[in-house]
Amino acid sequence: MAELVDVVATVANSPEVNSRFEHLVLDFLAYLEFERGLSRNTLEAYRGDLLQFGRFLQSRARTAETAEASDVAEFLGSLTGGNGQHASPATIHRKSACLRSFYRHLRREGVRDSDPTAALSAPRRGRRLPHVLTRGEIAKLLDQPAGDDPADLRDRALLEVMYACGLRASEVIGLELADIDLEAQVLRARGKGAKERLVPIGSTAVQAVAAYLERGRPELVHGRPERQVFVNFRGSMLTRQGLYKIVQRHAVQAGLEGKMSPHTLRHTFATHLLAGGCDLRSVQEMLGHADVATTQLYTHLSSERLKDVYFKAHPRAVTARGPRGSARRAAS
C-alpha cells in the first residue's frame, strides 16, 4: 500500500498534466497494484511513462479520451529521435506495453469505446510465469481469519470464495447477493467486457459464505439496503484498496508477506485445478478467458509443479551422486 501512496503523491505534484488525466492515471495505478500486484518499481516506471504521454497529448490539444492511433504512434516514434535523445528498445517496449495496458483498462472501465493502441504490434518476449501458492501455503492463508466476529467471518468467506472460484478482484468486490446460489453451489461472476459466467463454489466456501451472511454481514450493514456481498466496516461496498488490505493482512499473518496479491489466489485456483486433472477448456470457462491460449499459461505452472513432486517422491528419480561427486538424476 505504501508503494501506491508514494506514487500518488508524485502524480498529484505533477502540474504538467490536467486533473482528468491525473485521475485516470491514479485509477490505473491502483488497478495495477491491488489487482495485478505489480511492484513499486513497475508502478513508478508506468507513472513516468503516462505522465510523459500526458504532456505529449496536451501539446497536441488531445486527451486520453480523444487520443487516436496516430497520436500513440507519433509519441512512440518521438522516442527514437529528436532533442538528441534516443530511448533504448527495452524502454520503448515498456512504454508501448504501458500504453496498451492503460487503454485496455480505460475500455474495461467504460471510459473509451475504442483502443488507439490496438494496432500496436507487441514485441515478442518471453512471458513470466505468475507466482502461485502451494497447497500448504493456501491452507495457512485460509486458516488465518479464525475468529467469530463479523470482520473475521467476512474475511474467511472472502478468501475462500476467491480461491474456490478464481475470481478477479473486481469480480469479487462487485459480487451481489443475487449472484450467489448457495443451495446450487454456484455463483455468477461479471467479468471483463460485462461478460457473465457461472462458476461452481466448493462446499468449504459455501459454508464460509453462509456463516458470513447469517452472522457477519448483518452486523456490518446495520440494516442498510446494500446489494454487494462483501462490505467494509461502514456497511458499504469494498474497494480494491480495501480488498488488498484484507488479503495482505492475512498474508503477513500466514508468513506470506511479499509473496502474493489478490490475483495470486486466481493463479493458484487455476494451477491447482489443472494439477488435479481438470481439463483446460473447463478452467478457461471458469476463469472467463476469451482465448484458451491465456489459460494455457497455467499448464506450464502445473507441469513444473508435477516435475517437482515427481523428483521428490519417485524412488528412482532422487538426486544421486555422480562418479566425480556432481549431482545427477538417477536413471529410471
What descriptors fit this protein?
2 domains; two-stranded antiparallel sheet; about 55% helix; hpI Integrase, Chain A; disordered C terminus; single chain; about 325 residues
Task: Report on this structure.
The protein is mainly alpha-helical and 332 residues long. It folds into two domains: 2-108; 135-264, Orthogonal Bundle (hpI Integrase, Chain A). Helix content is 55%, strand content 5%. It is built from 13 helices and five strands. The protein has helices at 2-12, 19-34, 40-59, 69-78, 89-108, 135-142, 150-165, 169-173, 203-221, 240-253, 262-275, 280-287, 292-313; strands at residues 180-181, 186-190, 196-200, 319-321, 327-329. The strands form two sheets. A three-stranded antiparallel β-sheet has the order 1-2-3. Strands 4-5 form a two-stranded antiparallel ribbon. Strand 1 (180-181) and strand 2 (186-190) form a beta hairpin. Helix 7 (150-165) packs across helix 11. It is globular, with a radius of gyration of 23 Å.
CATH H-level name of the largest domain... which superfamily? Intergrase catalytic core
CATH topology of the largest domain, by name, is hpI Integrase, Chain A
How confident overall, as mean pLDDT?
81
Helix and strand content put the structural class at: mainly alpha
User: What does the overall shape look like?
Assistant: globular
Give the neighbour order of strands across the main sheet: 1-2-3
Q: Alpha-carbon distance between the termini?
A: 49 Å
pLDDT < 50 runs, ≥5 residues: 1-15, 319-332
Proportion in helices: 55-70%
| Largest sheet report | 3 strands, antiparallel
CATH architecture of the largest domain: Orthogonal Bundle
- Tally of helical runs: 13
Order of helices and strands: HHHHHHHHEEEHHHHHEE
The rounded Rg comes to 23 Å
Overall number of domains: 2
How many beta-strand runs? 5
